[in-house]
Amino acid sequence: MATTNPLSVVTNAREKPAAPASALAHRDLLDGEFWKRIPAYSEVDSEQFLDHKWQAKNSITKPDKLLAALQDLVPREFYEDVELGFKRAPMSIRVSPHLLSLIDWDNPYEDPLRRQFIPVASRLLPDHPKLALDSLHEQHDAPVDGLTHRYRDKALFLALDTCPVYCRFCTRSYAVGIDTEEVEKVSLKAKPQRWETVFEYIASRPELEDIVISGGDAFNLRAKQIRTIGDTLLNMDNIRRLRFATKGPAVMPQKILTDDEWFDELVAIVELGRRLHKEVVLHTHFNHPNEITALTKQAMDRLFERGVTVRNQCVLQRGVNDSAETMQLLTKRLSYCNVQPYYVYMHDLVKGVEDLRTTLQTGIDLEKQLRGVTAGFNTPTFVVDAPGGGGKRDIHSCEYYDRETGISVYTAPSVKEGYFLYYDPVYALSPDAQARWADPAERDKMEEEALAAAKARVRETSQASASPSPLTES
Description:
Elements: H1 6-13, H2 46-49, H3 52-57, H4 63-70, H5 76-88, H6 97-102, H7 112-117, E1 147-148, E2 154-158, H8 192-204, E3 210-214, H9 223-234, E4 241-245, H10 248-251, H11 254-258, H12 260-275, E5 279-284, H13 294-305, E6 310-316, H14 324-336, E7 339-346, H15 360-370, E8 381-386, E9 391-394, E10 400-402, E11 407-412, E12 416-423, H16 431-437, H17 440-466
Parallel strand pairs: 2-3, 3-4, 4-5, 5-6, 6-7, 7-8
Antiparallel strand pairs: 1-2, 8-9, 10-11, 11-12
Helix pairs in contact: 4-5, 9-12
């Protein structure tokens, strides 16, 4: 008579159920000639669409260009909404054909990519009362033009002020792109004389080890400029790490696939760093899983084959990625393409995009739902870049958070003295709290209350730390 092996029964009982098909959705990447759904691109073949020069030349910068590309895909009222949105935008508008082709034009108002890049006046909200154009005080912490030195061993080098596309939510709307009706830009052109001043400062500060090369966007640096920056910085004894920052792979992967000169220079700098035992990586910026296509994976595969490490920094945005399902899919899809999820930023206080901001509580909840979906090293850290120059703080590390007024308070003892306040969007607060924010006197009172509560908690924590533990008393 056959007997059942008890061990096999236990083992089978412990088997994890097979994953549903939805668990593999991150591998299902948009492929084929998807751009042909756009009337203006219906006759564009793969060779032309993959040409980075064609992508740049045919980028959308004005409402009439959008109309010429989309034609009858959307009603006339939408174009009029966009036209007024362009006029009220603090950022220049630039959208690549690749990106335009990924937007769902059957439902453009709700599409997460349209929300990020194409403003519509009907969805705009008033700016937060505490908003400042350079809310992170990058210029205040700049000892020379275009170099922010906030952290002791790290500096941000704004090498240029242009990008392959312009994000509505850019925290550097004070400098990036051309002047708009809303903002006269600070000039950070890619000029050798300005760069030389930056290099001299970096070389004079032995504590500086880590340089982020951004702007603007490193995608718009010419190949020779990549070489100049990389060679100059890597040959400084104090520099140990370089990070080239770019939105490019999310909006124009064609450059990585077809601009061999630029690609080879980037790889050469990575290889030079490796020979010098220094780290050179690429930091990019995907916000939604729909930004990642089969073309994107081809581009990321090419970087991976040549030994280029790619990390992602994401911005949490309302209607874009503020759901657990979307953030989980984005994280898994990035990992599938060998892009390491690094940061998820709470949205900075940026002029003209209050409709995209979410609450700190949203970030706290999403972090909890995201952790454990994949390996820890592929799970991003959720951070607030503290207004006023406090730097990046883990969202959980606030000294105080009043969910009624939407004020959170952070300290940054290793960066800068003082208290740094972050603010939830007013639209997300209760009617009573919204009424208080409409009254300047009440705004001051709410801030005073939040600061007092934060300082009290800091004192309590300090006193608790100073008290001897019962376990160590003799």
